[in-house]
Amino acid sequence: MSAVELRLSSSDLPEKMGAMRVWLDQQRFEPSSFSCRDVDDGVLVSLEFKIAHQAHAFAERFGGRAHTLPKSDSGSELPSATFEPGVSASRFIG
Q1: What pLDDT digit, counting tens, does each position of 49-62 carry?
Q2: 48: domain CATH number?
Q3: What is the rounded CA–CA span in Å between residue 85 and residue 26?
């Protein structure tokens, strides 16, 4: 499973959320989870995808950071891919 996190300003949130939904529908991608939480400089949006290439495509399109989550059977984590500088360096998703 792969996750994406991106930071948005509170004022951009409604417009960006609409654009994300349209793009996901057009691509026929379905995230398995979605969450938003307030952070000091805006909103942290987190999505999880069961298919890694979908997470990476989403991150690339919306300027986020994609992470491959640890596999439950091995507990090891694969390296992440960064598509946009200046986003959270945190590996915490939630």
Answers
A1: 999 999 999 999 99
A2: 3.30.70
A3: 26
